[in-house]
Design goal:
Shape: elongated
Largest sheet: 5 strands, mixed
Structural class: alpha/beta
Helix content: 55-70%
Strand content: 5-15%
Distance between the termini: 30 Å
Number of helices: 6
């Protein structure tokens, strides 16, 4: 028969856990609204920026005067994977899904004879990749002290990538993050940022022509570095919303599971207590009959 004191302690412990998970769920819900608004607000700007850049890139084409950030190095031998995850856990499969996508990409590239380098943004991704891909690490960006991710953080990451590219450390850079869709759905995404890759959404029946001054090459040379920062910033915002959505969902499930466990333990406690009382009554009755 289970010890009543142990059962009571377990019930108290699970109740305390439920309070914590409930509080974390409420905090995540409050943060999610702000993070979701920021991510959704950035999408129209990012899409329009990509559309303009796609038009510029198409007009330049494979010209010899095209900026290196657009044309690339002419090789894809050295690949830099920028894995962007959270600084904290307790958010379901948010971190592991991004890491899984990046790991699969790295293993595929290595299998095809490519040289792979990994730059991590966020502690959790680094921890998960360190065991089997730690020898490929070339840098880490710590955002643990950043309360609210801003464009300046994206600029710092972009500046690091651009400096490495100018120094010839890699040929292709790809960022890995999670695109927010809903509280229960976040989509792990891989996006090439160097050489610049812009996809414009086609608008049926609408064609706009622009005259540029100075010429397209000069404008691209100035805008492409900003484009890298813009793409990274959009990815950070998507990650922020995805993280809070995943944490809210995970803590909701944990709170429900704790409630179910409390119910089961309470039933077990009541049955055990009833059995103890019954045994005590039997002993009293037996003693009285013996007298």
């Amino acid at each position: 028969m289970p010890n009543l004191k142990d059962l009571k302690n377990r019930i108290g412990s699970v109740k305390n856990t439920r309070k914590i998970t409930k509080a974390m769920q409420m905090v995540a819900a409050a943060k999610l609204r702000r993070a979701q608004d920021a991510a959704e607000a950035s999408r129209p700007y990012t899409e329009r920026f990509n559309a303009v850049m796609a038009g510029l890139a198409a007009s330049v084409g494979s010209s010899d005067s095209a900026p290196k950030l657009l044309s690339g190095t002419g090789s894809d031998q050295v690949q830099l994977l920028v894995v962007m995850t959270a600084e904290r856990g307790l958010c379901g499969g948010f971190n592991s899904s991004i890491v899984k996508l990046a790991r699969a990409k790295a293993q595929d590239l290595v299998a095809h004879g490519k040289t792979v380098k990994i730059l991590t943004v966020g502690k959790k991704g680094r921890e998960q990749l360190k065991r089997d891909l730690g020898d490929l690490f070339v840098g880490h960006v710590d955002l643990a002290e950043v309360k609210s991710v801003g464009y300046v953080n994206a600029q710092d990451i972009a500046r690091d990538l651009l400096n490495r590219f100018d120094a010839g450390e890699f040929d292709v850079a790809t960022i890995f993050y999670s695109r927010f869709q809903s509280v229960i759905s976040q989509i792990p995404t891989a996006q090439q940022v160097i050489p610049a890759s812009f996809e414009a959404e086609e608008e049926a029946g609408e064609t706009t022509l622009y005259d540029y001054e100075p010429d397209e090459e000069a404008i691209l040379a100035d805008l492409l570095p900003r484009g890298v920062a813009t793409q990274i910033f959009a990815a950070l915002l998507e990650n922020g919303a995805s993280e809070q959505g995943a944490r809210m969902s995970a803590m909701d499930n944990a709170t429900r599971n704790a409630g179910e466990m409390i119910d089961k333990l309470t039933i077990e406690y009541n049955r055990s207590r009833q059995a103890v009382i019954t045994n005590e009554l039997i002993e009293i009755i037996s003693g009285a009959e013996a007298l």
